[in-house]
UniProtKB/TrEMBL annotation:
Residues where substrate binds: G56, S57, G58, H59, K107, D112
Chain positions covered by the region annotation Disordered: 358-378
Record-annotated DhaL domain positions: 388-600
Organism whose genome encodes this protein: Penicillium angulare
Catalytic reactions of this protein: D-glyceraldehyde + ATP = D-glyceraldehyde 3-phosphate + ADP + H(+); dihydroxyacetone + ATP = dihydroxyacetone phosphate + ADP + H(+)
The DhaK domain, residue ranges: 9-352
Entry keyword set: ATP-binding, Glycerol metabolism, Kinase, Nucleotide-binding, Transferase
Protein name: Dihydroxyacetone kinase
Functional description taken from the UniProt entry: Catalyzes both the phosphorylation of dihydroxyacetone and of glyceraldehyde.
Pfam families attached to this UniProt entry: Dak1, Dak2
Gene Ontology biological process terms from the UniProt entry: glycerol catabolic process
Catalytic site: H222
Compositional bias annotation for Basic and acidic residues: 368-378
Length: 606
């Protein structure tokens, strides 16, 4: 199916949309280079937490339509249905960061999580400004058993998170409290969607339609398959009844995500949102909303305390809708913050439909669109270190990875897309290039940040984001721990690496026995920590022990069935004829190459 459209260029249409929003609201600015719509903020005198969201375009009015006083401070617009990249997101941080910190709201999609996560960790490490990410995962159509690793998708409920967190920030709450509000509402919210057909992408190719007299229950907002196809098409009353059952059956073992903790559903303070996915008429949407309200009343004795019916977060022109329920019952929230009052606070944004205009308009200060990143805050600590040792580590890593690259490429060709070796080599080359610049490696914090930035840019893709998140978190931890340890030694590195690993775990569910780089990285760091803090080993002995642990972990992946990445579809442990059986994971082997380079710099005591 392909419908006619006025725009066939998926890039220009995003530019025009953002420019239009900026011209409708004189307090907003549009960074056209990075596709960021934002409210200008003073870096040093800002008196509130900044709220940033974003993602692929095609979900308008989310997220750009919610930039304004009382909601978002910046929205980062990727290409249609594609996550914005690191540089775009960092530019948004630069435009709106304040010393109070930044709350980042992302929907639970891998590209968004990794790119926003990498930007958050980088910015925090580089500036010392605290950041916190809340991931919205409100889709109840993805059952527990199928979504236990990647989690549930983020849908229209994200807009309610924008609203309550924006109001909390506007009240002057600190980052911890704003994040607590956002996380609580996210954890107590559920959404189910359906559509009669797929969305049409600007400039996209024709694609099959959902058959006549059929609808898809649980379709995602990027044309992802739903939970089930229903044919013949049920009445709206039957459909809504089935959707509410998925939302409100608390003891459903696969879909019971919305909890009431013993409070009768009829006594709970429930907020209802009925969201147009883009292709419904106002007449049809309002009629559906009334069916939802009648079904809640007749089947559950529920009368929502707030009702929102409009186009809030779309899948372009998909002919479908979402039902979202958020449980704002005060007894479930361990705080004196009134969540409902946050939802009721007026805002100044272009598209939040239930707000009341304020009497006074913010006097915005214009910021040059080409503002350099060099004007933003920089590293706060000067940590002197041995430039020779730093250089030797980078040199040895590069030498080892260069030697191992053909083997890593061969392994990845059998189970992936064959780029693991070349990507890791590009990262090692980029890291070593830092040593060729004067004085970069005599300051540990500056040198590590340069290495992290170079590796991120040199590698790219998912692996670049993973390494980037780890390295940037490592930089933050080194700066923090140095104030306690007051010496550049193996304790500083072991403690910081442990903390960086915990940060990385927040962005991926991969662990040991997942057939990923984590199978080598986790044992390396755990053994390093044990050797340093439990057994008081020297740096050389501790690194040798950690290296051997990484080797053992990588070797174990030969017989592990993959649960992450492209190799998931190969299945290394299935069938005697499988070409990947007995082949270690190339990502884990890459960690071994790096650990070989590091530990070879230090002589082991006899």
């Amino acid at each position: 199916m392909k419908t006619k459209a006025f725009f066939n260029d998926p890039t220009h249409i995003v530019d025009h949309m953002c420019k239009s929003l900026a011209q409708q609201n004189p307090t907003l600015r549009f960074d056209a280079t990075n596709k960021v719509l934002y409210r200008p903020t003073n870096h040093t005198k800002g008196n509130k937490v900044s709220i940033i969201s974003g993602g692929g375009s095609g979900h308008e009015p989310a997220h750009a339509g919610y930039v304004g006083e009382g909601m978002l401070d910046a929205a980062v617009c990727g290409k249609v249905f594609a996550s914005p990249n690191f540089d775009q997101i960092i530019s948004a941080f630069d435009h709106v960061a304040t010393p109070r910190g930044i709350l980042v709201i992302v929907k639970n999609y891998t590209g968004d999580k990794l790119n926003f996560g990498l930007a958050s960790e980088t910015y925090q490490a580089q500036t010392g400004i605290p950041t916190h990410i809340v991931t919205v995962a409100d889709d109840v159509s993805v059952p527990y058993s199928r979504g236990k690793l990647v989690g549930r998708r983020g849908l229209a409920g994200a807009v309610l998170i924008h609203k309550v967190s924006g109001a909390a920030a506007a009240r002057g709450l600190d980052l911890a409290d704003v994040a607590k509000v956002a996380q609580h509402v996210s954890d107590n919210m559920a959404t189910i969607g359906c559509s009669l057909d797929y969305a049409n992408l600007p400039g996209g190719v024709d694609q099959p339609s959902i058959p006549a007299n059929t609808l898809e229950l649980g379709m995602g907002i990027h044309n992802e398959p739903g939970a089930q196809r229903i044919s013949p098409q049920p009445t709206v009353e039957q459909l809504v009844s089935n959707m509410l059952k998925l939302l409100l059956t608390e003891d459903d073992p696969e879909h019971g995500f919305l909890k009431f903790q013993g409070i009768p559903q009829s006594k709970a303070q429930l907020v209802l949102m009925v969201n147009n996915l883009g292709g419904l008429s106002v007449l049809e949407l309002q009629a559906i909303a009334n069916v939802v309200l009648e079904s809640l009343r007749d089947q559950y004795n529920i009368r929502p305390i707030r009702i929102y019916v409009n186009t809030y977060l779309t899948a372009l022109d998909a002919p479908g809708f979402n039902i979202t329920l958020a449980n704002l019952t005060p007894e479930l929230f361990n705080s004196d913050i009134d969540l409902l009052s946050l939802l009721d606070e007026p805002v100044k944004s272009n598209t939040w439909t239930s707000c009341q205009p304020l009497d006074e308009e913010i006097a915005a200060q214009r910021t040059p669109e080409n503002e350099e990143r060099s004007d933003s805050p920089k590293l706060k600590d000067e940590i002197k270190c041995d430039k020779g040792v730093f250089t030797a580590i980078l040199q040895n890593i590069l030498t080892q990875v260069t030697a191992d690259e053909p083997k890593l490429t061969e392994y990845d060709t059998l189970m992936g897309d064959g780029d693991c070796g070349t990507t890791l080599l590009a990262g090692a080359q980029a890291a070593f290039a830092v040593s060729e610049e004067d004085d970069n490696l005599s300051n540990l914090a500056k040198g590590l940040m340069k290495v992290a930035s170079s590796v991120r840019s040199g590698m790219g893709g998912t692996s670049g984001a993973l390494y980037g998140i780890f390295l940037n978190s490592f930089v933050s931890a080194v700066q923090k721990n140095y104030t306690e340890i007051k010496e550049v030694n193996i304790k500083l590195f072991a403690k910081s690496a442990t903390q960086a690993l915990e940060t990385l775990k927040g962005y991926t569910n991969a662990r040991e026995n997942s057939r990923t780089l984590m199978d080598a990285l986790i044992p390396f760091i755990n053994e390093l920590s044990a050797a340093v803090f439990d057994d008081k080993e020297s740096a050389a002995n501790a690194l040798q022990r950690a290296h051997k642990a990484a080797e053992t972990g990588a070797e174990s992946t030969k017989w592990i069935k993959s649960s992450f990445g492209r190799s998931t579809y190969v299945g290394a442990s299935e069938g005697d004829d499988n070409p990947t059986k007995g082949i270690p994971d190339p990502g884990a082997c890459g960690i071994v190459s790096i650990s070989t380079g590091i530990q070879s710099v230090f002589k082991v005591a006899n």
